[in-house]
Design goal:
The chain is of the alpha+beta class. The chain contains 17 helices and 29 strands. Helices cover 25% and strands 24% of the residues. Helix 11 (464-476) packs parallel to helix 12 (503-524). The longest helix has 22 residues, at 503-524. It starts with 16 loop residues before the first helix and ends in an 11-residue tail after the last helix.
Length: 708
């Protein structure tokens, strides 16, 4: 039974939509203070070594060039929590693309010309960028990202696996992936009376302010960071990045505002990426398909600058019945750029491997892939033993199967074709944890009848302004039109960044609390509204700091139909359906866009996105959108999103779960499983590009001897 429609849940139009289409929404690079200068970074041209000389004098003689910052003259920085931000402090080059200088000029063109002309001498060292799973220097870290233990074991995996009636032993490989948001990373910095103000393309103004205060030895009150509009980030803007540090350094050095906007070709080396991962999955099951043993072991890489370990084995700890389990993360430090957050970190690569192995188990047991997953539903979360606050994966699978027409599927692989096209269908499940962080917010009512909400949330294109206004309107029992929302500045009440699908749940809780308190204060008024109006503030630190008594996750099921061209090797997604269980949906319009956007990103992960490490030069070959392919409209034929109505009282006052990342998690495996069903051959390395498909199709029974 569906929930009655209120202001919260209604498909309200995004508040900034008109501003964006009219060009009135201003992004970080579009703010140009009077006297603004432009900085162009100079990346290292060697994969490892040190800088021995800089042709600074020649560049300073060029038109418009005012400064060349390097380790020789750049402002000294403090020790940051993130060492990738300690820029231009010494002569070392830890990887190709590491910044060795910044040219500052009166125009963007002059800065770019100066950077191109700067001659840099190097002393090179041997570099190592090759990731394999048999390296002697692989080690087990203390933790994977998110504070997850690197190793978890339950029961006797080896004994249970050896005794299993059916066994799957498969290895999967995922290449590095890069975020490539439409808006490149950019920042504008200005010093005035000892205060630093920056406009930065960031997923969180608070962390940017804190990092700059730490680097420049300032009190946090001396720094204002503004991230009013952000053109996508996908995790790469989840932590402070070099542009804002370089802009602040150059502004301090020159005494004038400075703008730094990174060219796209530099992004792969300096703003993070999803590290490549090597997966070894073993599943043991009874003849009935019920899993008795599960192991997921991951090898990945990090840089020598900062350890970052993709938590790709964590989903296997919570997904299915697994009385005997082993999940392990191992890592090797290489002379590569530092990996970082990318949309659904851990879950996206981890669930590709796990859900592909589940499809292989379905084949091995002769069970329908949907039925296999239904048979392995756990009563409680396997890793913690906690009850689920809600778990409607079964409902997602069953509704998805019905709507998609799964029952009409011929289970035999490689038998359905249209001329040169082989057709197949696949399914995969998805999960993402419910994450909530402490947040503050304030709510004010003035004599003009407008309710003003203030919170340092960040709208990275997901409609945060709109949904927060809906939360406020419902808590205040007032029309949506009477609510305004101010976000995107570190001068506002402190709030967490937009990441980990926790933004709306965290900010919304604080907004709901502030508005509830304001409504009560107004109801208790025995006098007219004061001249200054009424303002209340709220902090959710106490509520969010309590240890949860339930395991809290969003779940979903993705169904996919693909076609494989036996002549060209091209794979296309004909149609895709995602059904998700993510608590209360707060805005039907923006939620549908989020789910579809996630699935589209999953299609890219499955079929085209990939970053190839050039081992000779130590950098990624795909460094622009001409070589790093992402899905376009022609690649997305029919993608539909639905959701299950969930009433979960253990989350937050809105009953919502994050939806930003759940859409991508199962999609790549659904596509890969559909390709196997279409062709009868199993590819275990993404992306499924035409060259790989043509090679795999050689001798495939599905071709029946027909010439390609």
């Amino acid at each position: 039974m569906s929930r009655p429609t209120t202001v919260l849940g209604a498909p309200a139009v995004r508040r900034e939509a008109r501003e964006k289409v009219a060009g009135a929404a201003r992004y970080a690079a579009e703010h140009t203070p009077s006297g603004c200068l432009y900085g162009w970074p100079v990346p290292a041209a060697v994969p490892r070594g040190r800088v021995t000389s800089l042709g600074t004098a020649e560049v300073l003689d060029m038109p418009g060039v005012l400064a060349v910052l390097s380790h020789e003259n750049a402002p000294r920085l403090g020790q940051p929590d993130d060492p990738t931000l300690r820029l231009l402090q010494d002569d070392r080059v830890p990887h190709r693309g590491w910044y060795v200088a910044l040219v500052v000029a009166d125009t963007l063109e002059n800065a770019r010309a100066g950077a191109a002309a700067l001659r840099v001498g190097y002393e090179t060292e041997e570099h190592d960028v090759r990731l394999t799973d048999d390296r002697p220097d692989i080690y087990t870290p203390e933790e994977a990202n998110g504070g997850h233990p690197a190793v978890r074991e339950r029961g006797d995996f080896e004994g249970a696996y050896a005794a299993a009636d059916v066994r799957v032993d498969a290895s999967y490989r995922l290449t590095a992936l890069h975020n490539h948001p439409m808006e490149p990373h950019a920042a504008t910095a200005h010093w005035h009376d000892g205060r630093l103000t920056v406009r930065d393309s960031s997923q969180g103004a608070g962390p940017v302010r804190d990092a700059l205060a730490q680097l420049f030895g300032l009190d946090r009150k001396q720094v204002t960071a503004v991230s009013e509009h952000v053109g996508g980030g996908f995790g790469s803007k989840g932590t402070p990045r070099p542009p804002v540090v370089l802009a602040a350094m150059a502004a301090r050095h020159t005494g004038r505002p400075v703008k730094v906007a990174l060219p796209r070709r530099q992004l792969p080396a300096v703003v993070g990426h999803r590290a490549p991962t090597l997966h070894h999955v073993r599943l043991g099951a009874g003849a009935d398909g019920r899993i008795t043993a599960l192991a997921h072991e991951v090898v990945t890489q990090t840089s020598r600058v900062r350890e970052f370990v993709e938590q790709a084995a964590v989903p296997a700890r919570v997904m299915y019945v697994s009385p005997n389990s082993r999940t392990v993360h191992r890592v090797v430090a290489l002379d590569v750029p530092t990996p970082s957050w990318m949309r659904a970190p851990g879950e996206a690569p981890g669930m590709y491997a796990l859900e592909s192995a589940m499809d292989e188990l379905a084949v091995a047991t002769g069970l329908d892939p949907v039925e296999l997953r239904l048979r392995n539903e756990p009563a409680t979360e396997p890793d913690s033993g906690l009850p689920f606050s809600s778990r409607n994966l079964t409902a997602c699978l069953r509704r998805g199967a019905e709507v998609f027409g799964w029952q009409d599927r011929d289970p035999r692989p490689g038998v359905t074709r249209e001329g040169d096209l082989l057709l197949g269908t696949g399914v995969a499940a998805s999960t993402y944890p419910v994450l909530i962080a402490p947040s503050r917010a304030s709510a004010h009512l003035g004599h003009d009848g407008v309710h003003r909400i203030r919170v340092n949330a960040t709208d990275i294109g997901t409609g945060a302004r709109t949904v927060l206004a809906q939360i406020a309107a419902e808590a205040l029992n007032t029309p949506l039109e009477t609510v305004t929302v101010e976000i995107g500045s570190s001068d506002l009440p402190a709030a967490p960044l937009a990441g980990g699908s926790c933004g709306t749940a965290s900010w919304g809780w604080a907004v709901h609390k502030a508005c509830t308190l304001l409504a009560k204060r107004l109801a208790d008024l025995r006098e007219p509204l004061p001249a200054e109006g009424v303002t209340v503030s709220a902090d959710t630190r106490e509520e969010t700091g309590k240890e949860p008594a339930h395991a809290r996750h969003a779940f979903g099921a993705v169904f996919c139909e693909t076609q494989v061209d036996t002549v060209t090797g091209e794979v296309a997604v004909r149609r895709m359906l995602g059904v998700f269980a993510a608590g209360r949906i707060l805005n039907a319009r923006t939620a549908r866009s989020q789910f579809i956007g996630g699935m589209t990103m999953g299609i890219g992960m499955a079929l085209m996105e990939g970053s190839t490490m050039d081992e000779r030069f130590g950098d990624y070959a795909e460094c622009d959108l001409a070589s790093y392919h992402v899905p376009v409209c022609a690649d997305v034929h029919s993608v539909e999103a639905q959701w299950i109505e969930e009433d979960d009282p253990y989350l937050n006052p809105m009953g919502s779960k994050g939806i930003g990342e759940i859409g991508i998690v199962g999609t790549a495996a659904a596509v890969a499983n559909a390709v196997h069903h279409a062709t009868g051959v199993r590819l275990r390395e993404l992306p499924l590009t035409p060259d790989k498909m043509l090679h795999a199709l050689e001798g495939s029974p599905a071709l029946n001897g027909r010439s390609r």
